Amino acid sequence: MDELSTIEKADVRKSILDFEELLKKQDGVFLGDSVNCPLKHSFAPGIYVREIFIPAGVVLTGKIHKHEHPNFLMKGKVEVFTESSGGEVLEAPLSMISSAGTKRVVKTITDTIWVTVHHNPDNLTNTDEIEKNVIAENYEQFERFIEGKKSLVNRLKTFISNKLLIK
């Protein structure tokens, strides 16, 4: 898919969110960790690893991650749709970097194991607490997070510039 304009990306983003709302209204829908899609959590100093098993034929939407992070499709074949790449088929083994703000619609073609790796600077082990640092509940929260990061970087640049000028 060619690079999308900002307006087209907004339309795709809205379509993904609308699709997610439709999914939630279907019978038999499960959200998050479940017996259908069990999660495995692993920790190393400064790192949180999340592994999910997704059976063939499942359609789901991913979460909005605040940070760029590595992903590994360890097993399986999936159809994926995102605002940045449109639709594509991914097949294991595969590694990729997800951009901050990426939200996916995924349909598993075969049983799938997907792993994400996240920065965990405070070495938290409570996954609810980790998610507060890693996941945006919606795009408005994500945009505020990004603006806050930009503001902090600009304040740091100003501070450093002023310190260098004062000699």
Low-confidence stretches: none
* H/E series: HEEEEEEEEEEHEH
Distance between the amino and carboxyl termini = 53 Å
Largest sheet, described in full? 5 strands, antiparallel
Q: Tally the helices.
A: 3
Write down the oligomeric state: single chain
Share of helical residues: 25-40%
Number of strands: 11
Percent range for β-strand residues: 25-35%
Radius of gyration: 18 Å
Q: Classify the fold: give the CATH topology of the largest domain.
A: Jelly Rolls
The class by helix and strand makeup works out as: alpha+beta
CATH evolutionary superfamily of the largest domain: Jelly Rolls
Shape: globular
Adjacency order of strands in the biggest sheet: 1-2-10-5-8
Q: What is the total domain count?
A: 2
The CATH architecture of the largest domain can be named as Sandwich
CATH domain class name of the largest domain: Mainly Beta
Plain-language structure description:
It is built from three helices and eleven strands; from the N terminus they run H-E-E-E-E-E-E-E-E-E-E-H-E-H. 32% of the residues lie in helices and 34% in strands. Strands 1-2-10-5-8 form a five-stranded antiparallel β-sheet, covered by helices on one side. Strands 3-9-6-7 form a four-stranded antiparallel β-sheet. It has a two-stranded antiparallel sheet with strand order 4-11. With 167 residues, the chain is α+β, with helices and mostly antiparallel strands.
